[in-house]
Amino acid sequence: MEVVQDLSNIRINNQHKTTTLDIKDLYANLLVRNIISITKFWLDKYNNQNAITKHTLELIKLVLNQNYFQYNDKYYKPTQGTAMGSPLSCTLAEIYLQYIEELMVKHWMEMHEITYYRRYVDVIIIICHLNKINEDLITSYMNSTHKHLECKPTKT
């Protein structure tokens, strides 16, 4: 309902383009070292207690090093990323993606290159102003943030 309400309040014209992106295999492609450094970025930005930052990062490392999942009565340990279904995976993915949004999307919004941006887990809806930016450039920038994360336009 929020998306519908948001979209009904946006003034768009023929110079705008709506696109949707899907982040391919989000959980499996989040690298532990990146998760740690990005979590540290947010903790340093909003927390001035070094002990909290240190202990939080140690706990995340501990959980991620014991990150297993079960399929057909067999246990597996991901070679990279986080396991789907792990209670911590969605939180860490959110921390990671909010970092990307802080780096890129915030700038695009401030420069009015993007009129609308909304993400739900790994699906992104964007309305961009074609005179300033296009979906190929957005996709290229999003894919340049990390070699293992890949955004793909969805077919409509």
Chain-wise SSE layout:
Layout: H1 2-8, E1 16-24, H2 32-46, H3 50-65, E2 69-71, E3 74-76, H4 89-110, E4 114-120, E5 123-129, H5 135-144, E6 150-153
Antiparallel strand pairs: 1-5, 1-6, 2-3, 4-5
How would you summarize what this structure contains?
With 156 residues, the protein is an alpha+beta fold. It has helices spanning 2-8, 32-46, 50-65, 89-110, 135-144, and strands at 16-24, 69-71, 74-76, 114-120, 123-129, 150-153.
Q: Strand order, main sheet: write it out.
A: 4-5-1-6
Q: For the CA atoms, what is the radius of gyration?
A: 18 Å
Low-confidence stretches: none
Class derived from helix and strand content: alpha+beta
Structural key phrases:
alpha+beta, four-stranded antiparallel β-sheet, 6 strands, two-stranded antiparallel sheet, 156 residues, 5 helices
Write up what this structure looks like.
The chain has 156 residues and is of the alpha+beta class. The chain has one domain (11-153). The protein has helices spanning 2-8, 32-46, 50-65, 89-110, 135-144, and strands at residues 16-24, 69-71, 74-76, 114-120, 123-129, 150-153. A hairpin with a 2-residue loop joins strand 2 and strand 3. Helix 2 (32-46) runs antiparallel to helix 3. The longest helix has 22 residues, at 89-110.
